[in-house]
Amino acid sequence: MEAEKAPVEIEEHEVHSDKSEEETEEEFESRLTKKSYWDSVYEQDIENFDDHGEIGEIWFGKKAVQNMVSWIRNCSDILPSNPVVDIGCGNGFFLISLHKAGYTRLCGVDYSEPAIDLAKKVAENEGAGHINLIVDDVLRPSHLEQYKVVADKGTYDPISLMKPDAMVPYEGAAPLALYKQTVLKLLRDDGYFIITSCNHTQDELIRDFAPEFQCHDTIAYPVISFKGVQGSSVSSVIFKKNTVTQH
After folding, report:
1. DSSP states of 165-179
2. CB atoms within 10 A of CB 127
3. CA nearest to 8, candidates 124, 103, 76, 128
């Protein structure tokens, strides 16, 4: 049995939610689906980075990043030279963590130009200026190279919240269908799609991505109880293409 590699140290950063007390849950979720919201978030993060060196929020915190990186490192089928893409990369922290773990062919995609501007600043500051960072829309991509690993840490969550009015620019297509089409195009036939979500359980993710993808593995998180219901605050599933459905 292959020995697990030692974990890579990742600096901790606070995770927060900016939902106001006056907002309903529906209003907050709607805001999360709008590009203008994310542009404003990352524009503010750029100012904070320039003034104080703070990179902004790390979605789902240190542990989720650590778990995703550790899973990739402990998969003997994934080499440090294999290409990896992070769709909805935000400030690029996940990619920088992979860079620190020795991975060399890294790409980040985000539809928010300020997010990519911030990610480039952070990468340069971390000595990871070689990371390829691209402005592109995961639901209507123009960047369609193929990767051994396609990673998503929090991008599918707001996409899954998109209402019909938000899909007008996409000719009213279903967001999940467009998202799956993109992942299928980006992922090599021998590749791994690793997704981490706070809005969906492991079972829901497995259901949503069938039949095009089949569950290969999951990442365990601590189980919490609330009002008699047990579950995890974060879910991670590793998928492989279901090659039977591709032919």
Report:
1. GGGGGGTT--HHHHH
2. 10
3. 103
Q: Both ends of the chain: CA-CA distance in Å? A: 34
89-124 burial, b at 16+ Cβ within 10 Å, e below that, comes to bbbbbbbbbbbebebebbbbbbbbebbbbbbbbbbe
Q: What is the mean pLDDT of each run of 10 residues along the chain (247 residues)?
A: 43 45 68 87 92 81 91 98 97 96 98 97 96 96 94 95 83 91 97 96 96 96 65 88 74
Contact 46, 90 (CB under 8 A): no
Give a three-class secondary structure readout of 213-235.
EEEEEEECCCCEEECCEEECCCE
Distance (Å, rounded) from C-alpha 121 to C-alpha 118? Answer: 5
Q: State the chain's maximal CA–CA distance in angstroms.
A: 54
130 vs 202: CA distance, rounded Å: 33
In whole angstroms, what is the distance from residue 52 CA to residue 125 CA? 13
**Angstrom distance (rounded) from CA 1 to CA 8:** 21
Collapse the DSSP code of 85 into the 3-class scheme (helix H, G, I; strand E, B; otherwise coil) and give the result: strand
Q: How are beta strands 229-231 and 147-153 bridged, if at all?
A: unpaired
